[in-house]
Amino acid sequence: MTMAIEYDREKAALTAAIKETMPEQSLTFESGNEMAAMAAAQINYHLMGYFPITPSTEVAQYLDMMKTRGEHDIVLIPADGEHGSAGVCYGAAAAGGRVFNATSANGFLYMLEQLPVQSGTRFPMVLNLVTRAISGPLDIRGDHSDLYYGLNIGWPILLARDPQAVYDMNIIALRVAEHADVRLPVMVAYDGFFTSHQKRRVRYFADRGTVQSFVGEMPSGYVHALDPENPITIGPYMNDPDLINNNYQQSEAMYRAGEIFKQVADEYEKISGRKYEALDLYRMEDAEVAVFLLNSAAETAKDVADQLRAKGIKAGVISPNMIRPWPAKEIQKACKNLKAIMIGERADSYGGYGGNLTHELKATLQEMKGNETVVVSRVFGVGGKDFYHDDAEAFFDLAIEAAELGLAQIPFDYFGHTPGNPELAPKRVLAPLHGDAFKSGLIQVTPNEQTGKLNVKIPPLRALTGKPKRIAPGHGACPGCGIFPGLELFFKGIEGDIVVLFQTGCAMVVTTGYPYSSHKQTYIHNLFQNGAATLSGAVEMFYERKRRGEIQVGDDFTFVMVTGDGGMDIGMGPAIGTALRNHRMIVLEYDNEGYMNTGSQLSYSTPMGHMTSTSGVGKAQGGKTFHHKDTAQIMAATNIPYVFTGTEAFPQDLLKKAAKAQWYAQNAGMVYGKILIACPLNWKSADEQGQTIVEAAVNSCFFPLYEIENGITNITYDPEARNKRIEVQDWLSLMGKTKHMTKPEYAEMLTSFAGEVERRWRRLKAKHENEYL
Fold first, then answer.
1. Is the peptide bond before 55 cis (omega within 30 degrees of 0)?
2. How many helices (H) and strands (E) does the chain have?
3. Cα separation of 76 and 63, whole Å?
4. DSSP 476-542
5. Could you mention a single GO BP entry for this protein (predicted)?
6. What are the φ/ψ torsions at residue 289 (nearest 5 degrees)?
7. How far apart, in Å, are the Cα atoms of 548 and each of 380, 534, 540?
8. Which of 379, 414, 449 is the last residue of a domain?
9. What one-character DSSP code corresponds to residue 378?
10. Is the peptide bond before 432 cis (omega within 30 degrees of 0)?
């Protein structure tokens, strides 16, 4: 006993001595996203290409916040979508710099095409995957269905179970990626909303020089695109027999990454005191039953293992810190005494009788001579469903039962699903409305054969108040949100039945949430980037089924796509394709000048100088650094029959344009309309001031009201002619997000912005005055 005590004292003294020589660390209380950003800032990457998607969005936000304070020099590039962000990162890596990114869910899938190119051509970078459920249906909470799509792209994958591990793994990941024996891009995956947003105690290096010293200078001697004395060809096509040789080399590099991870993790332990093995093993020395879980769920299971040990049951927990390369040898060693193991997976491999890792675990155990460990598999926690203490107990019970029986009675199943109750099926609250219910008979649109334009007759607005709304009350929009007054005013000018498609965004999120919907007529949702293509398919199917006599629907059916929250950035390509094909439909964009549904990040519609969560204002930065996109003019260049702008502040103007839009969509082809709407929450303005602010935007000529009918531009409201024009700064002063632009230190930015507003206004007036422009 005395010798054991003396040994413990010597070990404690040695540990204390080691800690005294370690670099200084500070204690904080932060989330996983904050720690990913902190690690990136301390490393001081050259560049980050990004696109906002929940729950990874915060990583770029925190980095932008740090940049406004001058805490790093990373070039932050807001891409037009995740596919674009992956391209930005690949180009930057090919140019020889250090590159960083973060994404989630369908954003990861959207960039997936690009990711094997990066690993196949061996350019390192670090990508944080903040795991989230893959649509559909849409779910923004955390599971591992996105992570599993990354298993076959040739990237080493590290896992982080808590914010501390997020910080540490991000530092380790770069060393692994750049190692001469690896040279591969590396992914760090952690649980969306569980780890990404929940705050925990974290230690980090007080001096970023410690981190930079650990990761070291960028390795030299590798080819890149910026060496004129050594021109290279990157990514030529490669036929057999060369591709198999390339893939073999990449495969060998992947397996070496597992060994390099161990070396780097050992070095990291010496400066941090934190040890990361390929497997996180808890009480596995003599375990006979165990659960196998990824990331945050494993922590819950450890408490249950302790309780079972107190009852004499030899229980343990296995949780990998790396799943690519798959730590087969370590798993075999950890499972040598197991009678049964229960693997829980937050994603399914549909039709495969278990998720992806179930089969990898089974294959690994099968390679052990004489091994008889029973494997039980359950899919759990999808869509962010919580994993509680009782759930961990149930998992251990399944393992214990299998150990006692020597087999799994049900080898694979779902856990936590519930059967539906027909008696609780949702019932309609409102009777369906269609046809004449949405026909006022007060709106007349007739072609003018002499001018080639449309004559529109509309009644006073009060005459249309009895016309039912298309969207029922009870949606969850913020107070003062301008989306629904704007949409409903537009819909007042549309007669008859509609099919409406909403891209992902605020308007979609706040009007539908299973099993409820605020939509009175048929509603479709598709991904952020693909609404226009989706609705064009529905339009063409409508006309084809009518032609075949399969459906009996009136000719006044109208198809409308509603987009906003930056949807005309990531969705611009499909929208232009739809326009060039000239399908008979309306694309209506509500412009709130940002990605408001993910937390007010900048979009390409955000004007210069405006503050968002990714264009902060501080001593080193003064809001968005480039001008806003003129979507209406871009869409006009596709030569569609009708393009317009509008706002709720000028209701008669918008009603007329809605009526024209319907006629053109039913008779000529595609229509694009852009309505400016207020977002008090993110514009930092009073809830009741929305109409005043958008009216000021029109009167400042920032958002002119006009239409382009068969290629001819017509300004429908001219504030100069009415003697109502105001200075741009008078409009900016109404919003908290832009007040800084009226201060002397931002005079240069204000001048640039006001000059661009004036230039665009003068060009528009020239087009108004000359039909050939």
1. yes
2. 25, 29
3. 8
4. -PPTT-SHHHHHHHHHHT--S-EEEEEESSHHHHTTEETTEE-BSS-EEEE-TT-HHHHHHHHHHHH
5. response to oxidative stress
6. -130, 150
7. 46, 21, 12
8. 414
9. E
10. no
Residue 314: domain span: 279-414
Asked if residue 452 and residue 589 are part of one domain, the reply reads yes
State how far the Cα of 287 lies from the Cα of 337, in Å rounded to an integer. Answer: 6
Q: What gap in Å lies between CA 85 and CA 89, rounded to an integer?
A: 6
Indicate the pTM of the whole model: 0.91
Whether 556 and 593 share a structural domain: yes
Structurally, how many domains does the chain consist of? 3
Helix (H, G, I), strand (E, B) or coil at 97: coil
What pLDDT score was predicted for residue 472?
85
CB atoms near residue 723 (< 10 Å): 6
- Cα 88 from Cα 101, distance rounded (Å): 10
Q: Are residues 607 and 491 in the same domain?
A: yes
Does 395 share its domain with 491? no
In a domain, 226, yes or no: no
Which of 46, 28, 296, 290 lies closest to 167, judged by CA? 28
Distance, CA of 51 to CA of 102 (rounded, Å): 8
Assign 435 a pLDDT band (cuts: 50, 70, 90).
Answer: confident
Cβ–Cβ < 8 Å for 315, 367: no
Q: Which residues contact 20 (CB under 8 A, 6 or more apart)?
A: none
Determine the Cα–Cα distance for residues 154 and 149; give it in Å rounded to an integer. Answer: 11
Rounded CA separation 76/58 (Å): 13
Query: In this structure, are residues 579 and 561 in contact, taking their beta carbons and an 8 Å threshold?
Result: no
Report H helices in 548-701. 567-570, 572-581, 631-636, 651-667, 680-683, 690-699
Which secondary structure element, helix H or strand E, spans residue 300, and what is its range? helix 296-310
pLDDT (0 to 100) of residue 588: 97
Same domain, 475 and 405: no
Q: What is the mean pLDDT of the chain?
A: 94
Query: What is the C-alpha to C-alpha distance for residues 83 and 572, in angstroms, rounded to an integer?
Result: 13
d(CA 773, CA 758): 18
In terms of DSSP bridges, do strands 315-320 and 279-282 run parallel, antiparallel, or are they unpaired?
A: antiparallel
What whole-number distance in Å separates Cα of residue 74 and Cα of residue 36? Answer: 14
pLDDT of residue 474: 80
Give the three-state DSSP class for 588. strand
CATH assignment of the domain containing 375: 3.40.50.920
Res. 555: pLDDT tops 70: yes
Give the mean pLDDT of 510-520: 87
Give the torsion sign (CA, 550, 553, 554, 560): negative
84, containing H or E segment? helix 82-94
**How many angstroms separate the CA atoms of 181 and 176, rounded?**
9
Q: Scan for tokens 């398919």, then name that residue.
A: 537
> How far is the C-alpha of 748 from the C-alpha of 141, rounded, in Å?
42
Last residue of a domain, one of 272, 293, 317: 272
Cβ contacts of residue 386 below 8 Å, gap of 6+? none
In terms of domains, do 114 and 55 share one? Answer: yes
Identity at 5, one-letter amino acid code = I
User: Distance between CA atoms of 701 and 755, rounded to whole angstroms?
Assistant: 11
Q: Position 590: which residue type?
A: Y
Q: Which pair of tokens denotes residue 380? A: 């759990």
Q: Residue 171 CB: number of other CB atoms within 10 A?
A: 25
The answer to whether residues 468 and 515 belong to one domain is yes
Express each pLDDT in 537-550 by its tens digit: 999 999 999 999 99
Helical segments of 549-650, H only: 567-570, 572-581, 631-636
| Ranges of H-type helices in 670-773 | 680-683, 690-699, 728-732, 747-769
Specify whether the CB–CB gap between 114 and 49 falls below 8 A.
no
Radius of gyration of the chain (CA): 30
Question: Would you give the distance in Å from CA 714 to the centre of its chain?
Answer: 38
Q: How far apart are CA 107 and CA 7, in angstroms?
A: 53
Which residues does 510 contact at the CB level (< 8 Å), separation at least 6?
475, 476, 477, 518
